[in-house]
Task: inverse folding
């Protein structure tokens, strides 16, 4: 059963520390998404990549967040330095999308990385 | 992408059908209607999607009105494990953005 795998599942860190979250998309999927979920804001799209190139990162705070895809099987989301307001659940999702065919391809989510910054 | 409107919460008796409505009056011709759900502390789970025709799979049925301005997700025999937040999303582009959803509580 193919699935999106995220690590770590839970992370508690001190303010100012660097945090890296990792995601293994479903094999063969060409698009990876990063979402953040909080009680106040709900599910927010931070950024997404297609074929390892960033397509849209307009939802991501640029000063402290960065997202990369070192290879087709690994996506990373890094926060440096972390702040208490970054405490949230971060979800990675993947899909096999064909540009210009828009919304007809399903996006599958991982189980999330629960981040607490104290 | 078109906006959607869902009731914030609904209850359903166990074993009965759960009918979750969604309004998307500004939907355009090539936007898809997607439904996801999120059970507490888990990632969003894909349920079903459609463009114009009604759709059915092992989890649910999706009924889209002829003018496509609204849709209904039907869980034919709700169980306690169907208690979750259900999201209706109208999607044109490659990305997908979530609203607040409907919190469905299935009661014994």
Result:
């Amino acid at each position: 059963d193919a699935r999106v795998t995220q690590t770590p599942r839970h992370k508690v860190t001190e303010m100012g520390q660097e945090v890296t979250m990792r995601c293994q998309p479903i094999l063969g999927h060409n698009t990876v998404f990063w979402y953040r979920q909080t009680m106040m804001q709900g599910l927010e799209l931070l950024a997404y990549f297609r074929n390892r190139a960033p397509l849209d990162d307009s939802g991501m705070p640029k000063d402290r967040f960065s997202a990369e895809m070192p290879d087709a099987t690994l996506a990373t989301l890094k926060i440096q330095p972390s702040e208490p307001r970054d405490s949230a659940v971060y979800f990675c999702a993947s899909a096999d999308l064909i540009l210009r065919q828009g919304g007809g391809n399903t996006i599958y989510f991982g189980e999330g990385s629960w981040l607490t910054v104290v | 992408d078109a906006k959607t409107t869902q009731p914030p919460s609904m209850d359903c008796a166990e074993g009965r059908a759960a009918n979750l409505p969604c309004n998307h009056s500004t939907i355009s011709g090539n936007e898809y209607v997607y439904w996801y759900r999120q059970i507490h502390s888990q990632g969003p789970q894909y349920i079903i999607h459609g463009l114009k025709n009604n759709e059915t799979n092992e989890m649910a049925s999706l009924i889209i009105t002829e003018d496509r301005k609204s849709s209904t997700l039907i869980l034919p025999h709700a169980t306690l494990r169907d208690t979750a937040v259900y999201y209706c999303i109208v999607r044109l582009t490659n990305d997908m953005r979530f609203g607040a959803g409907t919190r469905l509580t299935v009661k014994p």
